[in-house]
Write a structure and sequence with these properties.
Helix content is 57%, strand content 10%. By secondary structure, it is α+β, with helices and mostly antiparallel strands. The chain is globular. The N and C termini lie far apart (86 Å). The structure holds manganese (II) ion.
Amino acid sequence: MIEKWLSPSAKTFLETVATYLPPADVSKLANTITYADEAHAGQRRQSGEEYLIHPIATAGILAFYHLDTATLQAALLHDVPEDTDRTGPDIQRHFGKEVARLVDGVTKLSQVRLKKSWLASLQASSDENRSENFENFDRHVETLRKMFLAMSHDIRVVLIKLADRLHNMATLGSLTPDKRVRIAQETLQVYAPLANRLGIGQLKGQLEDLAFPHAYPEAYAWLSEKLTSELTRRERYIERVRRILLKRLAAIGIRAEGHARAKHIYSLWKKLERHDRDLTKIFDLVAARIIVPTVEDCYRTLGLIHQIWKPLPGRIKDYIAIPKPNGYQSLHTTVFALGGTITEIQIRTPAMHHWAEYGIAAHWAYKDSGQAPQKLSWIEELAKLQQTLSDPEEWKKGVTLDFFQDRIFVFTPHGDILDLPIGATPIDFAFGIHSDLGRHCVGAKVNGRIVPLSHSLENGDIMEVLTSRKASPKTDWLRLARTSRARSLIKRSLDLNRGQTKRKGELNGR
Ligand code: MN
């Protein structure tokens, strides 16, 4: 599928959307392409190709998931405000509020970036401070993931950003090695985990596999060499298993489909790292996947398999009764199959298969019922998703709805991020960075404009603290501060000043 969208044309894109959208929407999209083409006229990507290929590819990936027209339009326009002289308001005039809002969301998200210095400190780690640097790095990427979601407001913005990244990853080759590593790490640490949390297994696997060779070239070279012969051998073997199973299932009246599923190379690598890099310990390198019509058929199929081949104890997993946190459902079993070879088999219905590949994207897909796709607000949707997204492993670091509802993310001019409560002011920001910066703060610039210290900061603001050596905290700052950190530092500083004035007074009096 990526191959198809590597250098797509407007024509193939419009043909694809015509398979599921009404003609009126197709012509809307054709107009949007014309607008984007004019806006980007004369621009080329780093690879030298015409710029328009990128937005069309981004929209094309989303068309593969059958997303609604507004999302596709926003995907076609996603780089317009940042890279051309056409503005957000101009987009709104042409295409309406919804499209403009989605484009604006994507534009804002471009601030969410893995900092080069974080990566450098991780790579330069000596053995003593290695784990500490890893912890810092983990905290940094976790903040990035939270910020990414908190700033999106609409899941469709996240989907556009993921598609944008997928195409960028597929065309990463033309960038400098430094940039490639940074973007590949950002993809592995921020984008792929988000795709996974949203249940879009296919996208997650593609993002990781495209990033892997850039992020860990040596590991990739080692593993891909080992895999070439092994994969074909195991795929041939699974094919034999599949044929036997389908025949036996047909005999008891179950019409099944099946295919061999090779594990994505990056997730295989992560698993290998936990198993001493020993490929013989990985039983699901290639798994047999059996798709049967109903849930009942799933359990009957499992029973049949266990009658034919003995299961490996402790490896039978019922993700139908107990779905994975991201909504994934299937039955998994590992059996001693042909010649006693340990073999993983996954059993699921077509609907479960659909969710496993498309996840939340399926939920936003255009539904041919005359109704617009569901447009729940992002927060409502996340509330619903919470149950499925509440994997204690993945989310234990405090990614909860509460967290998002009352937090904002503000940047320093150097791109560092501060996470603050809603309603936070420049005072909170200054003290949040350093107590000295807070104490000597006289004013603030937000997005290049001078604002009063009472100014309410907003998500995505870039803030600069203006200081003077002589300045010191005032009592009314306590009223302006929202964070307990700023409050207590202000109080301490006021007490100290009072103490000094008093002492001075006493001295003078003597
Ligand atoms: Mn882009």
